[in-house]
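Q: What would this complex look like in 3D?
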Amino acid sequence: MGHKKYSYQKTVIMRVFSSFLRKIRSEHQLSQEGLRALLNERSHSFDSLDTISISRWERGINTPSLTKQSEIAEVFGDDLFNIYSSDADFVEESTYFIQFPPYVKSDKTAHPYYKNEQYHTKSMLPDHVNFESMLKLCLMYEGNPRLFPTRQEITCAALLPLNLVSAFCSLKQLVGHCLFCKVNTKALFEFMNCSIGIMELLNVAKQDRANVLVVLSSFGVSPQIDNHMMSVYLNQLATDKAIEYLSFSTCDNKLKQKLMQMKIPMFKVKPIEYQSKIIQNYSFIMSRSEVMANRNMLMLSVIPTRKIQPTNVGI
Amino acid sequence: MNILIVDDQQFVREAIKADLAESTFKHDFKTFEAEDANQGIEAIVAAEGNIDLLILDLKMDNSDGMEVINFLSVHASYTDIPLAVISSSDKRTLGLVNSIASSLKLNVVGVFEKPINMDFILAETVRLQRQNDKKWDVESPDSVSDYDIHQLLDDEQVLLCFQPQVDMKSKDITGFEVLARMYDENGYIYPDTFLPLIDKAGLNVDFTKIIIAKAFKFWAHEKTLSSYTLSINVTAEDLSSDNLIEYIIRHKQAHANIKLILELTESQEIINQASVLNSIARLIINDISISLDDFGKSYSTYERLDTIPFNEIKIDRSFVCDIDTNEQHHLIVESTIALAKKMSVSVVAEGIETESVLNILGELGCDIAQGYLYSPPIEGRYLKAWVNRYVHKDEIA
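A: Here is my prediction, written as structure tokens for the whole assembly.
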């Protein structure tokens, strides 16, 4: 089903954008020519724009790329996330990415012990009683020697900026996770270049104003859960306007491939020597506008996974 | 499980077999041996690629492991064979082989220094195979070649980003390099993807024209930016087009106040053709500066430096980004800066990401700094805000 969804028809996107366009034009009392002139004046992306195109956009015959849509939205002080996340149909369409189809046929891609049953997710902060054990499981999967190489006395205060979201199936088995935190770009580039370690990165995150959300691990046993995990941090990024960039720092080949398939350019590969073998550490960074102009990412970001509140019971 | 061991030393092969026999992995290992590259290739063919792990020695008596690696890479049916390279070569060579094998898209388990730990290699193989067996979920809507580059260019689905260049001493912004992005309904498309397509379609000159036109329009419109230099990439091939040279000169004449720098990127060897040199002379006469981009990456750079009166050289990011940890790169950058100083050419270092790299460049006397440390490429519509923030950053602090 993941397949079908990604070869998705543009109809909903077209409808959302056309109604947005009609709305702002009437709110600002602009004719189609007035809108054309305004866009032309504000941005060079609309040098060759004519009123025929605007009319087609409004009637939903055609639609500009998300990149252009976002420029138009910004001219009117709005952004793509606001526009698309407030459209129920679009959110519903997007939600298919993380839900299982009502019927399940025998599927070659099925996980050995996980049979597409329902799952639930749980968000944890470092002061949660199970945080450390869940983090250990997540690190074991990720296999990134740069994440907490020494297990000596890490206080939960030191881990504070970390967010861990885990997905469980009904057997209480862990079927997905994501680990991320908000830091600033300066510290992040030091980290990507191995000039500082994870503890220093987290320490900086506590002091300085964060402007980048960095994902350290992200995984799900099925495409749906994998997408769900991704939607968690994309939604966080989308709703926290102070965050200018999205970044990934991972040794997980599977996540790397998924990002490359989503057409995210790799920023850096850094070989790390660990126990006499070489492990590749992959880094990605993209701006908020790049994230929002990426259709797959926009769709995942509008799923309201922020409703999963951190649970901190049992302390 | 079939394991093929290609190593010229019998005792190494015996040691591996002994390790396998005692391995904690409970498996029925069937081993095959070969003592040079040719035998190894024969064994792979004989087994019809039905090999679960290929252990390959890099340096053998009368052949080397690279022959086998090259063989695997050109036979699609063999590229999936899990490959473990073993060697007593130094770490740099091992790193090189690893990157070659990965770039050839071979199924590399790893490159291991002798003496090897067989259990460890097995564990890595199992991990790798498990990763590979997992099917792919999010598939790309279209493969690279599906982009209709003609259509994208016709629609001018091109976006300009700008990366700042900063004076190392005063910390003032000196200018910006224009970096192009294309886009379609799925998102951004990056130069790694679109440049080869443009090249293949023979649209290089058309593309450069679009960039020149857009960049000039933007710079002419944003008066606050006019004091900054505007650097645009051109290839040697671009310079052999008279039509493009005319186009650039016309734009420059219409906007004499725009400080245009053309960054000549590495490409073909045609740089020394009379027509290209002629173009460069015309550009210089028209007050357009020429910068030698990616300095150090190509074998012909010194020759170019000798023939063309460049105003500036840009040291390639691959040398700059790790000068704090890579002694060789440090030496290359140091001597490049020294050379530039002697020739009175200004030096720009690209790819600065960390404070320590910046500090070293400062000590070496580099003039201008560019890199993510200052900012990732900034989309045109956010550029003014960025400049404002940068210029006033001290007031906030």
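A: To summarize the key features: Chain A has 14 helices and seven strands. The CA atoms of residues 168 and 174 of chain A lie 5 Å apart.
Q: Very helpful, thank you.
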